[in-house]
Design goal:
This protein is α/β, with parallel strands linked by helices and 286 residues long. The protein has two domains: 60 residues, no CATH class; 215 residues, Rossmann fold. Strands 1-7-6-5-2-3-4 form a seven-stranded mixed beta sheet, sandwiched between helices. Strand 2, helix 9 and strand 3 form a beta-alpha-beta unit. Helix 2 crosses helix 3. The longest helix is centred in the N-terminal third of the chain and has 24 residues. The radius of gyration is 18 Å and the shape is globular.
Length: 286
C-alpha cells in the first residue's frame, strides 16, 4: 500500500509518543518533532508507510544510540499476555470451530498496537478480550473457507509477526495447525515501535511451536527490499503466508499470491484501501 497524505500526521504522533517514553523533557520532544518535519519533504507517496517510518527511526537511532523506546512496554505486554494464555486456550477448547476461534483471538490480539493507538491501556484491552461475551462477529472481508482450503494443502506456512504481546495470541492460532506442517515465524531484526523481536518470540514460547527467524528488516512492516536473502528464500518457497497486522499489510498488499492478511482495521486509510470499515476484522488473500 502506497503512502497517503493522511499518513503524515501519524508520524508526528509516533515521534511524540517515542519522545515521551524516553524522557519528560519537552525540549527533546520538540527537537524530535523538528526531525520529522525535516523528513516530510523527502517522503514520497510512491513508497509505503513502513518505509517512511524506517527513515524516521533511523534518524532517532543515530541521535539516541539505538534506544529501544518500547522495551518496557513490550516486556509488560508479553508478561500479561502469557498470564492469560491458559484462558485463551480454554476459549479455543470450548469452541465448536477451534480454528475460527483461534483466528478471531489472533485478530483480537492485534489491539496491542502502539502505532495505531499512540496511548494504550494494556490491562483495559486485555480485560475486554477476556469477557465471556467476546466474539468479534462484525467482520469485514473474512475469507475463512478459502483460508481453510489453502491451509489444508500447505506443507510450509510462513507467519509474519506483528507486535510483542500479540504474538501470544498468534501462538494460540499456530498451535491449531502446526502439528500437520512446518511453521516458520518471522520477527523484526531491530526495534521498530513495539513490534516483536527474537527475544519476545522466545519469551512467549513461539519457539515451541514454530521455527523462529528474523526477517532482517528494521521497519515496522515486512518491506521485502530490506529483508535478508535467507528470509526472501523462505518467503518465496512457502506454500502459505499469514501476514499479521496493519504494518505488514501496508508493506505487502501490492503483491499477489499466497499471502493471507490478518488484522483489525484501526486506520481510515487502511479501511479505504482494504474495502473494510474501521473496527472490522479482516482475513483476506491478495
Amino acid at each position: 500500500m502506497k503512502m497517503f497524505v493522511e499518513c503524515i500526521p501519524c508520524f508526528f504522533k509516533q515521534a511524540l509518543e517515542m519522545g515521551r517514553l524516553f524522557t519528560g523533557n519537552e525540549l527533546i520532544h520538540k527537537e524530535m518533532m523538528d526531525e520529522v518535519a525535516a523528513l516530510v519533504p523527502k517522503f514520497s507517496l510512491g513508497l509505503t508507510p513502513p518505509e517512511m517510518a524506517r527513515e524516521m527511526h533511523q534518524v532517532f537511532e543515530k541521535r539516541f544510540g539505538g534506544q529501544d523506546f518500547y522495551k518496557g512496554i513490550k516486556d509488560k505486554s508479553n508478561r500479561r499476555a502469557m498470564e492469560i494464555y491458559p484462558k485463551l486456550k480454554e476459549k479455543v477448547a470450548r469452541s465448536n470451530d477451534r480454528l475460527l476461534t483461534a483466528l478471531e483471538l489472533a485478530i483480537a490480539g492485534n489491539v496491542i498496537d502502539y502505532a495505531a493507538k499512540n496511548t494504550l491501556n494494556i490491562e483495559e484491552e486485555i480485560q475486554k478480550l477476556l469477557r465471556d461475551d467476546f466474539a468479534p462477529v462484525e467482520k469485514g472481508v473474512f475469507e475463512y473457507e478459502d483460508f481453510k482450503k489453502d491451509l489444508e494443502v500447505a506443507e510450509t506456512v510462513l507467519y509474519l509477526a506483528d507486535n510483542a504481546g500479540e504474538i501470544v495470541f498468534d501462538r494460540v492460532l499456530i498451535e491449531e495447525f502446526c502439528g500437520q506442517r512446518k511453521v516458520i515465524f518471522a520477527v523484526r531484526d531491530k526495534p521498530a515501535i513495539n513490534d516483536a523481536l527474537l527475544e519476545d518470540a522466545i519469551f512467549c514460547g513461539i519457539d515451541k511451536v514454530a521455527e523462529v527467524i528474523s526477517s532482517g528488516v528494521d521497519a515496522p512492516g515486512t518491506v521485502l527490499k530490506y529483508c535478508s536473502q535467507e528470509f526472501l528464500r523462505i518467503f518465496n518457497q512457502a506454500d502459505l503466508i499469514i501476514s499479521k497486522g496493519q504494518g505488514n499489510y501496508e508493506a505487502l498488499s501490492e503483491g499477489r499470491g499466497r499471502i493471507y492478511f490478518l488484522f483489525k482495521v484501526k486506520c481510515p486509510v487502511i479501511a479505504r484501501h482494504s474495502g473494510a470499515t474501521l473496527g472490522d476484522i479482516v482475513l483476506r488473500r491478495i
